[in-house]
Specification:
Elements lengths: L6 E5 L9 E4 L4 E7 L7 E8 L9 E2 L1 E2 L6 E6 L5 E11 L1 H15 L3 H18 L9 H15 L5 H8 L2 H9 L4 E14 L6 E5 L8 E2 L6 E2 L3 H13 L4 E4 L47 H13 L3 E6 L2 E2 L4 H5 L15 E3 L2 E3 L3 E2 L6 H16 L5 E5 L6 H14 L4 E5 L4 H9 L4 E2 L9 H14 L8 E2 L8 H5 L1 H15 L2 E5 L30 H7 L4 H13 L9 E3 L1 E2 L4 E9 L5 E9 L6 E6 L13 E5 L5 E4 L2 E6 L6 E8 L2
Parallel strand pairs: 2-9, 10-13, 10-23, 13-14, 14-19, 19-20, 20-21, 22-23
Antiparallel strand pairs: 1-3, 3-7, 4-5, 4-8, 6-7, 8-9, 11-12, 15-18, 16-17, 24-26, 25-28, 26-27, 27-32, 28-31, 29-30, 29-32
Helix pairs in contact: 1-2, 2-3, 3-4, 6-7, 9-10, 14-16
């Protein structure tokens, strides 16, 4: 039923409240609603959150939101992980109604004494209602209310003086904190789930363990695979660059049947390694480790070393099988059998994956559920608390809802990243049923207007459903912007990802500006690491100074230093007079009562210097329209005096982006 003071169009609400909206410990979550009533009396509303232990938290008063009438917002910040709910309490506000009417009538000489009588009666109710109970007024507050009552009664004082006493700012603040509520209506509860901070904020680095420490025999050309123990040496450098998560592609035995050769060819040589996503062979399946990488003890040592460096390990979960996976023999019902009796391999026309059998969830759903949960819990027992899931959109949502709920029931700190480059409904659906993060369309957003629109979308339109992770590249995706943009393009995309999203990631080789595609028009890398071991001389490139690693390191330092960059729902788009210069800011409240503000000004043209004027929305920065501030460039260390309108010149050959922290002038 509609409440006496109606509340409608509540957000965030997912699937009519059947699923939990996204929230993160420490992140302000906006709660919005339309609140209205008949007539002209004033109303108010507040949000009351209930924590996972069932304790009601202090209410947060809702404030007018945007230019739409009757739209209100309040921000709720969960401080512990778990399942929360919120309610919206709306009421008729007689004090606000009196304040509105008195401010018009008394100066106009209309119903003057009647208005003062109504004020006295209202204030006596305030004093009486709060004379006892948990919200009992202190002596100073009682004295303030008593003095206002006396002013309302004192006909010997000038009318203006009596009104001024009733409009005292201290009294207004007291009445706002201790409102009289009439016709109270409650809407909710609505569920939201608060996850640990890594679900929202983190810098990801992807590498193939088999490439790290691999050695090529100069005489025979044969390559010896790296191992977990050799790859462990790479962890120190990843940590030095400021990354938080190391993501490993599948580490399981690789199928030999229909194995792919270099560049996805169908004619592998005897020493070709195949794709790690073609999981399973005579050496085992998803619960085994490729023999060339080492043992479970080696993997445990790798995870332990990462933990010492404050790195988390994310492991690929790819629910598919090579033709010689043990499941093909032990669980043939897991797959699709075609009319000719063969098992169907994976296809994404025009791409064909003859080395991979997809799972068919319609034949034996209960058996598949049991087996996948067993595998996930096995890797959890070896220290994996994050899973990057390959192609989740090709599996039923109901399966993911069940699996993620089962894991959350015993291990709520375990996170799942959805690698779903698909239609929005499925991407949002995966987030709604429990995925903590999602790959996005970021890679394909390269123009100013589409980037602006996308930043708004992920930060304030789909934020209750999915958290974005802006990966600048992947083993599968090398966008034309990077192929032809030169080193400046790599800086541009890194700066944009690192400041535009609280989670971002790079795939190894990005810092070496790897940019050659297998053929024109393709987004696949030449000599893709998916199909062969790739040996990189990291030390040589570092010594030569021909690596982007220092820039990536600085970006991650800036992200850790600025709380504003660790949040999602705080993006403001500003304007510039150049269609290639993007301007946006992020702002966060600090514990000391101040705030942290970062402005990104990025030249999206990697080939040309751009000179323009940027126009800032000063209130969005916490400043007045005529204020000035010190703009500190976190990349170069330079300082400028900025105000609402500012000239910028960005040379991609030098620095294509300003990442500016706002330092207020006194």
């Amino acid at each position: 039923m509609v409440g006496r003071i109606p509340v409608m169009d509540v957000s965030p609400v997912v699937d009519l409240g059947r699923q939990s909206a996204k929230a993160t410990v420490g992140e302000p979550m906006p709660v919005r609603a339309s609140v209205f009533r008949e007539g002209h009396d004033q109303l108010a509303a507040e949000v009351v959150a209930t924590d996972p232990k069932g304790a009601r938290r202090d209410p947060v008063r809702m404030q007018p939101y945007g230019e739409e009438p009757n739209r209100y917002v309040a921000h709720v910040t969960p401080d512990v992980p778990g399942e929360w709910t919120f309610e919206i309490h709306s009421w008729s506000d007689p004090v606000a109604t009196w304040q509105h009417d008195a401010g018009i009538k008394i100066p106009a000489g209309v119903d003057v004494e009647l208005m003062f009588t109504e004020a006295r009666l209202l204030l006596e109710r305030v004093r009486q209602d709060y004379a006892k109970g948990p919200a009992k007024l202190d002596k100073a507050a009682v004295a303030l209310v008593t003095g206002a009552i006396a002013a309302a009664n004192d006909q010997d004082r000038p009318v203006a003086a009596r009104l001024a006493a009733l409009q005292d700012p201290e009294l207004d603040a007291l009445l706002l904190a201790h409102p009289l509520r009439e016709l109270v209506s409650v809407s909710g509860p609505f569920p939201f789930r608060a996850d640990r901070t890594r679900a929202l904020f983190g810098s990801w680095y992807e590498f193939f363990p088999r490439s790290e420490g691999a050695v090529r025999d100069e005489k025979t050309g044969r390559v010896t695979s790296g191992t977990f123990l050799t790859a462990m040496e790479r962890l120190d450098r990843v940590a030095e660059m400021g990354f938080d998560v190391v993501y490993l592609p599948p580490i399981h035995p690789i199928g030999e049947v229909n194995r792919k050769g270099p560049n996805n060819t169908l004619t592998p040589g005897p020493d070709d390694t195949g794709s790690p996503w073609a999981i399973g062979s005579k050496d085992g399946g998803h619960d085994a480790i490729h023999p060339e990488l080492g043992t479970f003890d080696d993997f445990d040592a790798f995870v332990a070393r990462a933990r010492e460096l404050d790195l988390e390990i994310a492991l690929d979960l790819a629910l598919q099988a090579a033709p010689d996976h043990p499941w093909v023999t032990t669980h043939p019902q897991f797959f699709t059998t075609r009319a000719d009796g063969t098992i169907a391999y994976a296809e994404n026309p025009p791409k064909k994956y003859q080395d991979i059998y997809p799972i068919n969830f319609d034949n034996d759903p209960a058996g598949i559920c049991r087996e996948v949960l067993r595998i996930v819990k096995l890797w959890m027992s070896h220290g994996v608390r994050i899973f990057r899931v390959d192609n989740p959109h090709t599996k039923p949502l109901a399966f993911w809802e069940w699996l993620l709920a089962e894991v959350r029931r015993t291990d709520p700190d375990v996170l799942f990243l959805s690698e779903a480059f698909t239609k929005p409904a499925m991407m949002h659906g995966l987030g709604a049923v429990g995925y903590h993060q999602s790959y996005t369309y970021f890679t394909w957003r390269t123009g100013k207007r589409e980037i602006e629109d996308y930043l708004v979308e992920v930060s304030s339109e789909s934020d209750h459903l999915m958290r974005p992770n802006f990966f600048v590249n992947t083993p599968d995706i090398l966008h034309a912007y990077l192929q032809y943009g030169g080193p400046a393009a790599f800086k541009v995309r890194a700066a944009l990802a690192a400041t535009g999203s609280p989670s971002w990631g790079v795939y190894a080789g990005y810092e070496l500006f790897e940019h050659v595609a297998v053929k024109p028009g393709s987004e696949e890398y030449l000599d893709s690491e998916k199909y062969q071991i790739r040996i990189r001389d990291w030390k040589k490139r570092d010594a030569e100074g021909t690596t982007l690693a220092p820039y990536l390191t600085r970006l991650n330092e800036i992200r850790r230093q600025h709380p504003a960059l660790q949040l999602l729902r705080n993006v403001t788009i500003h304007s510039s007079e150049d269609d290639s210069v993007l301007v946006f800011s992020k702002r966060a409240a600090l514990p000391d009562g101040g705030d942290d503000v970062v402005i990104s000004v990025i030249n999206l043209d990697p080939h040309g210097t751009r000179e323009t004027v940027v126009h800032l929305d000063m209130p969005a920065l916490g400043l007045g329209w005529h204020d000035s501030f010190v703009a500190h460039d976190e990349i170069t260390g330079e300082d400028w005096s900025w105000s609402q309108h500012n000239y910028v010149r960005l040379d991609p050959g030098w620095e294509p982006a300003h990442i500016i922290s706002v330092r207020r002038t006194r």
